[in-house]
UniProtKB/TrEMBL annotation:
Keywords: Coiled coil, Exonuclease, Hydrolase, Nuclease, RNA-binding. PROSITE patterns: RRM. This is REXO5 exonuclease. CDD domains: REX1_like, RRM1_NEFsp. Residues 667-694 form a coiled coil. The gene is Rexo5.
Amino acid sequence: QEKSCRLSAALFGEDCEISHDQLYELLKYAALGKCHNATQPNWCRIYHQSQLAGVVVIVLHEMSQLHFYKFYLQFKHLRKAFRHRFTLTPSGNFLASLYGEGANRKSQTTAQGLTSTSSECIPKSSDLQCDPIIRKYGEKKRGLTSYTLTLEEQKKNYYPIRGSPGCKGYVDTECDEQRTDSSPLFGLDCEMCLTAKGNEVTRVSLVDAQGQCLLNELVKPESTVVNYRTRFSGITKKMLLPVKTRLSDIQTRLKKMLPHDAVLVGHSLNADLQALEMIHPSVIDTSLLFARNEGRRFKLKFLAKAVLGKEIQCEQKLGHDPAEDARAALELAQFFIEQGPAKVAELNLEMLLTTEKLAEVSQNKAVLKPQGCRAQKQLNEPPYLSKPCFLDCLQVTGQKPLLLGRQELDSSGLCQGKPSASNKQILQRALEDVPLSTFSIIQFSLGPDYIAAHGLAGLREEVRSKLTDMLTIYAGPFEENFCLKSVKKEFGRCGPIQSLTVVTETYQPYVCIQYEVLEAAQLAVESLNGAEVAGSCIKVQRPVTAAMLDCEVLIKELELDVENEGVIYVAGLKKTLTEMDLEEEFSQLKDLETLFLPTDLQNGKHRNCCFLKFQKSESAADALGAINGWTMQGSKLRSRNALASGHLWRWIQQMNHSNGKQGGNILHEKMDQLSDLEQDLKKKVKKLDHHIKKLYRSLQNNTLCVVLFPGVN
């Protein structure tokens, strides 16, 4: 059976936010794949990338998340066809990195995708002659044998040498065959702990030239461990307790695994071979390969990021991963051999390192700054952290990307369509040309009239106003001296309350409750309308405004949204319950995949509700029936289908906190004046959605399609 390409992105709840770099990472891997040294994204996974027929990015010019929810009902196809939906964090011009829009500086790119967009970072040819890499190896490409250490270099850098007095008892790999430029490369890395004897190996990893891990073994040291160095080694006492493997076992296995012409690659490999008590005649040491002045060496972590675009030795992990380090060293050597010294020198690693250090100092100073500085910090990232013009990367590999749009897009040498007068013409061109290209960017726009008439601030307030109304319910009437505490307790069982106020303008008192989540407000309407609360039979309803007349339709569509498929909302939880407690309580539910326990954005405390995601919709429906009426630690649970399980939940919280608690009838009078324009816009958006549907249906199987709402930043 033919393998089909698919995308898996198991992000849920607060994780449904991705950065500029993460989206770039996805597109790069999809378009280039392993054959061009692109790496699988760390936040999602593309299966069978080699089967990918193409990548299509649809850009909705100057439209943002606000527009998506403003015209949610009109985007009928978009919300039903696209299962994965993420909020893209604000950043420096993402579109510029994608196709060079408005970019005045030419990017200097490598096969790995690193760039220096600043002209100061790109060395002049005269400067290259002074580069230590050029001085050591010259400018021409060479085979791998030119980069193996000579016997003198090994002695100088304390490598174990045959016949050396300090290497008595060391095991020789006996890999004595003549090396050629076709000899196999193997990446090697060890982690050591401090024992009574000194540094002893406690973990060994070996990877082959394809990056496959051949050996990843814990080793029991001969002497008593004095310091596990867990922060760096990742080794703990508990890990080594059951281990039976000794150093002699590893030596025997390595000796059998390595072919007679093997070349070992590592970063400061001398330390690993000394700890292994092994002698190997042919090595490439990446700490020496990427030469620096005055005998200094680049760290592996820096080289991996600057050259390969990879993050290794992350602070979140417990210690280093030797397999990851071995693979990184191997890929660095492969990059150097394939690209040649001149290309490596052009990266200007010294400049990048200086920039990184300056950035770290800047970030340390910014630790105490408020959250509002986040976007500005991203705009001020150092040059080497910004990405190249993506389409330039494709051209390096011989691919001809297609660019179609109403705006004149500044990228030279591309297979670019002429600016079209309408979205319809763009669609027509796309239907003809997209099948002929492996990477296409199609830009649609609502036009300058819309952008001018609808200011971003006004649109934001309009959307926030409607969301506030949807989160708000009115309940009553109550008796004159009713117990407000009882009312708050009863309505609080539906979910977290943002605010509760008593309405006194009416003949009998009512309460106005604004919830933090849409599900809580809907649950209150569904379960408490007509119920007896605080001694009164009450009515529960949402505000009646012109904007709310389609509220029921909107709620129904949100419930059917593909993003909420298999997700249910549960309220009435005790705030003392942790995520672990809930996982244990709900463990009996069939096909439960993920649990998301929301936290307050300001104080970080858990709310009294959670979302449960199931592998199958049927299992979610069964769980819904089972949970309603459950009692957990004395609290009765209520549940319903999710309405805003993903990024929408997080976005609503941000809107509420940034705009205060006031209700939402502010702009209705103003919007009446714009009703004609509003109707016209709805038609345009509906037509735009239809264009996307038509283009989407014309795509070949195994095509990755991304729709981008870039906003204005």
